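agent> fetching stored inputs for the magnesium ion docking request
agent> found them:
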Amino acid sequence: MRRLLYASLLIMGFALAGCAARPADERVISKMLDGPLDTVSTITLYGWSGDEKPIEDIFTMLYGIDARMSAISEESEISAISGRTGTPAKVSKDTFELIEYAKKISAETEGAFDITIRPVVSLWGIGTENTRVPGSEEIDAALLSVGYEGIILDKAMSAVTLSKKGMRLDLGGIAKGFACDKAVEIFKNADVRHGVIDMGGNVYVYGLKPDGSLWKVGVKNPLAGENGYFCVVEAADRAIVTSGVYERFFESDGKFYHHIMNPRTGRPVDNGLISVTVISESSTQADALSTACFVLGAERGRRHLAMLPNVEGIFVADDLSVRITPGLRDVFNIVDERFKMAD
Ligand code: AMP
Ligand code: MG
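agent> prediction call returned; pasting tokens
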């Protein structure tokens, strides 16, 4: 269990708050998801005297999103859209709205976030056993099929058309956040008052801790091969979402290649960052922005977050310097002394 929690953001609610025993009214359920959500998801309820229904409903919802939004499964709505460029594909309301939102974030981040990145992700074999470093010509060819402007949305028909040849969608940078927000809705409708949703790198702390204090959430140490957390953020009713190089990577000829792609170059982002965390009330927003800010880099990323109300960020560079947005000053602590504040 300990290893599993360290594999993602670490929830420190009770476990590290000084009391060794877990509270009697804590309910924890973990299940594996293997589509775009691709993680062990853990739902925890505190002070909950009702039945297991909210947790069951959450997993039913998560399996549904995993199935519909997979870029790999041929049965998914994403494959239906990707497999027929030039022709509209009718999709569920959820899928439509998420694609619409992703396109908006793409425009706002000048294409740093781009769900049409799939041809590039596939070329590098990210997420498969066949990772490789492609040649420049292959990358240039794949980039011809990338560009969010080519996603045509028909809201009345709930239909999505990809206009360019070879275009394919990849919701891997946003689907977990969306699923987490749906889980929060289920908590709300069931009158859950205190809970944690942990989807590996996407955490939502719901309500306050049962004792009325803020939750303490540890952000994973981004050094590849290391476990544990390097900082702690205190929050309530917030999504805390991290994008890091350590999540998926491979090495070739002594070089390190990770899974967050620069849609301009068709190559893994190479700007010195090793992890970006975004904290927001919306997990969908935090997920999209953690990926986007990784691509934008620490300076542009921080400037972008500063324009958004109630959205904060933590940027970690490969020299272990850490930059945060001003709103975190009183709720953020570094706990691993190898990491230092940059300013
Ligand atoms: P995350 O862990 O949320 O940062 O998402 C990373 C995943 O999103 C990758 O594994 C890809 O599937 C996809 N992805 C990679 N680069 C981008 C990008 N620039 N914009 C949107 N999605 C991306
Ligand atoms: Mg993301």
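agent> quick read of the result: The first strand starts at residue 10 and ends at 11.
agent> awaiting further instructions
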